[in-house]
Amino acid sequence: MIRIVFAALTALYGCAFVAESGEAFRVPLMKDAPMLDGKIEPKEWAASAGFDGFITLNEGKLQRRRARGFVGATATHLYVAIQTQRPDEGALMAEVKTDSLKAVYDDSVEVYVCPTPEAIDRVDYQFLCNSLGKGGYNIHLLGAGKEEPSWQGDYQQAHGQQDGWWSTEIAIPLAKLGAGAQGRKATDGLWAVNICRDWKPDWGWSSLSGAYPHSGLTFAFTSEPAPGVRFEWSKDPTFLPAIGQLIVCNPSNKPLELKAALNLARNNMPELKEEKILSLAPGASETLKMSIAENDPTTIFDLTTQVTSADGKTVFYRRATKWGRAKEANRWVIGKPKDAPPVDFRFAYYPSRNKLRIAADINGLPKNAKPTRVSAVVREAAGKKEVKAFDFPLDKFADGRQEATCELPKLDGDYEIAMKTEGENCPKGETVKTFERKAFPWENLAAGRSTKVYPPFTPIKVDGVKLATVLREHTLNGFGLLNQIVAKSANTGVEKPLLAAPMRYVVRAAGADVSVPEKAVKLASVQPHEVCTEGTLAADPLKAAFRNTWDYDGTLRVDLTLLPSDGKAIEKLTLEIPFLADAATMIHANSDRIRAPVAQKIPDGNGVVWDARKVACDDFIKSFCPYIFIGGPVRGLCWFAENDKGWGWNPATPNLDVVRKDGQVILRVHLINQPTTITQPQTLSFGLLAAPVKPMLNAPGQNPNWWRYRFCRDKYQLLGTDINWLALGDCGSVYPAGQDMYLWEMLRKGNREKTSDADIKATVERCKKLFEPYGNDAVKTWEAHVGHNLRSHLGAKMVFYYNRATCQLFPECETF
To answer: Beta strands 797-800 and 716-719: pairing type?
Structure first.
């Protein structure tokens, strides 16, 4: 499944697929754009190229589940329609209810468009959505193609389900397709388009081209007279009988002389051929049919569908498809979701604290139910011995939901939580969910809890309002922020300031800015590894208290608690960080999309030159940038926040922006940007960290650039990704295969002495059984990695590399 998701969401290098004749599909411009209503009307799509059958990726054959695609254009838009089979039993999967590329986990469709398919350096623009119209946009860069990671296509879409089909209609504005489409009409040059279908629950995938997503068919749209062509099957052609229809129409105002042909090569001679010369008056259409009889003994089919000019010199439409014969009708069944239980709940178990949180939901009860008791019990899974029982107060339910927390005794083993209701018309029975508590030998050890400061870091030094960490001196102010940061180069030791003016909070209320007086900051605690400061802010209506924590690496955590404001609204609370322009030349920012950071020069200009809408994200809050670095190659400052809890920020606006003003570069964080009345204490948190964080550890008299070549000079090698340290898995392991530490002992031995053939064989055989369930290829890969990794690191300094946070395959995940 992982590989299929990867294929659906990730760019894989390839070339645009051109019609086999070497020509693009030549498609006339539509006189009128089709109505986007989720109903694919043949008349509206007559001036398009229509296709029946999507092709599987690996086999290159027609996917048996039915799919049709249409591609057309006006001068300013591309239009795509997708019509795919609904399940014979069950409903399309559509669990994603917000815009996110996670719609790939549902039944979904994808559209890829490349404005410059013949270029080496190009961009493919991806749109993906489910049947609810929820999805997202992505870009795939090929060669040196360039595009903003946060690109949004703003496509129009409409969906409908009727007559056994799910129909999707999409309008794609050319102006949204990057530099490659700027100033172009649809008739200018070639366009590559691929249409894909993600089938659930089996993670089937098929596309119009049958190649990787961005390897689309090539289209040339023309304002010259040209036919609209579509091909349709009467039914699934793999289970005979079936009739294919090549429908050719003339949407132009001039007559067309054409040749239409259907050529079916089979493993049963002779080939079947249907050909016809067409003389189409304006607005006329003709159909060429081919029938395959039920008793046809053919088992392998290869159909070429073609429409050319009458002399055969101009190819308008040519597509080849292959398939094998099926012995029975295809039936696509999706299991019906289970009915919601009368009572349901979510829970969180905290093993180290022996606590349980349960969020109960009684909205599944019958409308005429009158519960008199809602209760839960925690018990042993095997013997059903009760561990803890408690009731949910009926008057505490809000909208049928309530959350409760309870203490548990120390547990060890398998347990279950059972919830039930009692009362008039309340169904009998329980809703039961299970959890495991396994005690591990490493729990509660002192390892990793030392407060010792290890080199190259140094203990924090505090001198009045100056706080020094390695390479940086911070001047504190009474807002709980910084007046200045002076940072040394980690390489040369040269000191330079970062800020053009003190950091500050800007407050606005009743339409006017409110001055925030500065108060003395208090030192709550000073330790070598950690310093805590405290203070208050008062600028009517703003009342706040802060507690800031400094770590010895220079990280500052700000916890700002907003206090009740006597019924007055705060219209604006902005954190402003003014940088010296020559110290703030670059920006690095990211959200939740992997490998899609913003990393660029800060744009020139005046006013707002960049904002959080430029950050690409899938599931995180749109327009919320959780991390940003402003600075240069040597020095800079990070601001970061995990979420917007406690803010008064309007999610329709960017949470931060970068402004050029009066020779300064100012980072503005909009903590509150809409009228917000604080009625009870609410805390928001963010962090700051100046760079460089630590020195390069240059030895006296050593070349300052030693670190650039030390990896090679001192024979370091990277044990990258878990299979190279002999794990079972793909990038997600935390143990060697079978948690067998013998494998790591063998890695150490191979690092110190030449590994014998006998040792390699013994190591392969020791864990071979773990790979056998995954097939012969997995076993061969295991054998190859053992041989390579036990012999390729002799005499090297090995660096263990682990780049994943967790893997749910391992026992710790069940408990923690």
So the answer is: parallel
